[in-house]
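Journal club side-thread
Mid-discussion, someone asked how the predicted structure for our own chain would compare to the paper's figures. Pasting it here so we can look after the session.
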Amino acid sequence: MIKLAPPLTEDAVRRLKAGDEVEVSGVIYTARDMAHKRLCQTIRASEPLPFDINGAIIYFTGPTPARPGRVIGAAGPTTSARMDDFSPALIEVGLRAMIGKGCRNQMVRDALKKFGAVHLSAIGGAGALLSKFIVKAEIIAYEDLGAEAIRKLVVENFPAIVAYDAAGQSIYDKWNIECRI
């Protein structure tokens, strides 16, 4: 098990290989479709992003409301392909890792290679279980988006697997899984 603690460096990310099992501890951010769209609009407008993206990890999730005594509700991964149009721009400005589920398109894979980033996969359908690795959560931007608002999460030993590495390799290729995006 490889331990990751953001902010991630390009060198650390380039050492990861498709299929590596990782545990993330530290600050990560949530963002789904609408938040990604706004982040990219912000980049195009040359305005500051609502968090420091250099070395950051974005988790593609829209958590459910927290039950009493919990910091967050179920927080399972969203289908990653929904962010494919936006991810290259974020990777180019310093995003080092994303967590989601499923396949990524060639544009994302090319950006991962060029700029030194990875895509991690978490277990789909396990949102309640994954929420137990989240010890703190707060909305930091786009509150009007509800579940899709950007949250700053503090995670401890959040489990994932390197699905796409910075060398262009993929678990889907290794395991002969056909991706249709």
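Post-session note: Strands lie at 2-4, 21-30, 57-59, 97-100, 118-121, 134-141, 150-164.
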